[in-house]
Amino acid sequence: MAGTNAAPPPPGGPAPGRLDALMDAVRAAGGRGPAPVDRWNPPDCGDIDIRIKADGSWFYMGTPIARPALVRLFASVLAREGARFVLKTPVEKIGITVDDAPFLAVEMAVEDAAEGRTPNGRTLVFRTNLDDLVRCGPGHDLRFAPGAGEGEVVPYLHVRHGLEARLTRAVHLDLMEEGEVREEGGVPMFGVASAGRFYAILPAAGLGLSE
């Protein structure tokens, strides 16, 4: 991997070859598709200097991990435990740093109920930057966090095991195009519907919309 042996570890950092050992452990655990991390309870082996930046790029000791296959390998064993993100195998778990969400939702499509694959009705389907396909609905819900400006929101999609994808700006705009106004708790709300659920975003009145 580019950068794996480019520099000595910082004081208190991972031992030399630590990343290689982790790669071997992940491959031994399967390494193809999401692993059953919720079934494993290995010992905590501290942290490693792997960072996922807000733009979805992965770094090891400050050097980009350039191989998509290696990123997918690590992502397959990524788990969230409270506020901490860990790479988990049957024999160990190691903490990493995630600046925002570990994934990005980079594409969205609408799956119509008429296609017969959406028993709960029209469904929003998202593709992540690591090519996960996620059908928004029960278990894969949207949430909207407050943005930096007044009335701004940042949308996130639950992918698996507490891991979320932040929608890119382009996908965010696509999502807003699918919005509608429904009454929630007696208040007209602007939001989006998917797989039988309605995800309220903002009060319609604040957007100059009416039901």
From TrEMBL:
Domain DUF1285, first and last residues per copy: 35-101, 102-201
Gene3D superfamilies hit by this protein: duf1285 like domain, duf1285 protein
Domain of life: Bacteria
Protein name: DUF1285 domain-containing protein
Organism annotation: Xanthobacter dioxanivorans
